Amino acid sequence: MALEMTTDTAEKAARLGPESRGRTPEAVSARGRFASRQSRFGEHPVMTDRELLDRFIAENDPETFRVLVERHGPMVLAVCRGVLRGEHDVEDAFQNTFMVLARRACTIKHHETIGPWLHRVALRLARKARGKLSDIYMRDCIHSALNREHRIDLPLDSQAPLLREELNRLPERYRLPLVLCYLEGKSNREAADQLRWPVGTVKGRLSRARQTLRERLERRGVCLS
């Protein structure tokens, strides 16, 4: 992802700012959470997504937002490119996804990672821009990500929407590590650090998620080997 796109997106987000910042209980609470964490971690912590969002809400800091764009940008870009053909359309969908994040930062539930939330927003915006979702997304993005560390033979492209639907239906404790490891390409260790789970928990839930996904797909006539 180009540095120019990341910087431009972060600057636009800072100008836009979260909706109703300063007027909602969520925004006030965010300021308090960030102040507390800053006192514990200092100026250069390894911050979770939640902590970065709190800082953005409290300070409207473009550098903080840039970290979020750099962290999740590759995944968002892959989603947009899987749906849209024109590079200009891809860049618009990419920036619009993070503009939605900037506007709705105060309303996002308190999860340690916003990856699944961004994935859903990027997919919805790209689908709206294109009119319908391209199966290239599942073939190129999901297939390449899954095969990095875990061998799974995906169904034919015509069945890809079923995989996407069942992925989104998984409980959050299973969907989060799947998104981080398979869609964003993180290692088990990196996912564990971001989720603040033990590595063994990530591995166990990934295994259970794959088993659950396979069983649900098989009930719908799709076989994964």
Describe this structure as you would to a colleague.
This protein is an all-alpha fold and 225 residues long. The protein contains eleven helices and no strands. Helix 1 runs parallel beside helix 5, helix 2 crosses helix 3 and helix 4 crosses helix 7. The chain has two domains: 132 residues, Orthogonal Bundle (Rna Polymerase Sigma Factor, Chain: A); 91 residues, Arc Repressor Mutant, subunit A, CATH 1.10.10.10.
Task: Write the topology of this structure.
Blueprint lengths: L2 H14 L8 H17 L7 H11 L2 H22 L3 H18 L10 H16 L5 H14 L10 H10 L2 H12 L4 H8 L3 H21 L6
Helix pairs in contact: 1-4, 1-5, 2-3, 3-4, 4-5, 4-6, 4-7, 5-6, 9-10, 9-11, 10-11
**Biggest pleated sheet:** none
What would the principal axes of the Cα set say about the shape? globular
Cα distance, first to last residue?
A: 33 Å
> Overall pLDDT, averaged?
76
Computed CA radius of gyration, to the nearest angstrom: 18 Å
Top CATH class of the largest domain: Mainly Alpha
Short description:
With 225 residues, this protein is an all-alpha fold. 72% of the residues lie in helices and 0% in strands. 36% of the residues are buried.
Key attributes of the depicted protein:
single chain; 225 residues; mainly alpha; Rna Polymerase Sigma Factor, Chain: A; Arc Repressor Mutant, subunit A; 2 domains; 11 helices; 72% helix; globular
